[in-house]
Amino acid sequence: MIRRNVFALALLASAGAIATASAATIVAPSASSNTPGNAQGPAPLRYFGVGGSRVQQVYDSSTFAGVSGPVTISAISFRPFTTPSAFAGDTVSISESLIRLSTTQGSGEGANQLQTTFASNVGGNEQTVYSGSLTLTTSASGAAPYPFDYTINLQSPFTYDPAQGNLLLDVQIPATATVSGAGFGFATFDTANTENDGLFSVVEINNGDAISGQVSTAGAITQFTYAAVPEPSTLTLMVAGMALIGQLRRFPLN
What we know:
Layout: H1 2-19, E1 24-28, E2 39-41, E3 49-50, E4 53-59, E5 71-78, E6 88-89, E7 91-104, E8 127-137, E9 150-160, E10 166-173, E11 178-180, E12 185-186, E13 189-193, E14 199-204, E15 214-216, E16 218-220, E17 222-228, H2 232-250
Parallel strand pairs: 6-12
Antiparallel strand pairs: 1-17, 2-13, 3-11, 4-10, 4-14, 5-9, 5-17, 7-8, 7-10, 7-11, 13-16, 14-15
């Protein structure tokens, strides 16, 4: 009986610690969570063809105002502006891509304006979160806004602290890569093109080797999947619970 009670307490401690780090989602800009955007476009990718592209999207830290402390981002999702058709297919495939995240001081407004030169906007903690071929597919139907099902599951999750600055998404398709799919193009991304909504971009969708682009108020509406970074006390509780379970398995109580 003693062993059973101790084992149950250990499980509860571990489960409680893990629950605090469960995944959640947040949409940028927040005003577009349940409202369709007012524009559409291929960025942060590009239309079918070769030549590559590079697009940076900056999300103001206020997007994460409801989050306490740093978060670990594990997926990035976009939604289509319209439903797929014979003209605009439901799938886009990129033979090679490079996606990076960093914390930047750059913004679309105020003293730290975004620069046209891509390198000037990149933060010191830049991390490659996805590299290689990429295929995105949507099953959108019915009325807009559609689900965020153009999803990129990151190969390397990124830890972002809103207190340190804004979030920079940097998507590069090399000039040698091919963007393709069924139809004449794909159902492009639902986009917000509004001043001072906390979403800005630097865009060059025709040249993957470009070092600069055009600053824009437009950006693909984005959903981030994230989990709060556990506080030290939570980590301690989880480790202690798992250690106790291990000890109980090795040395059963009578």
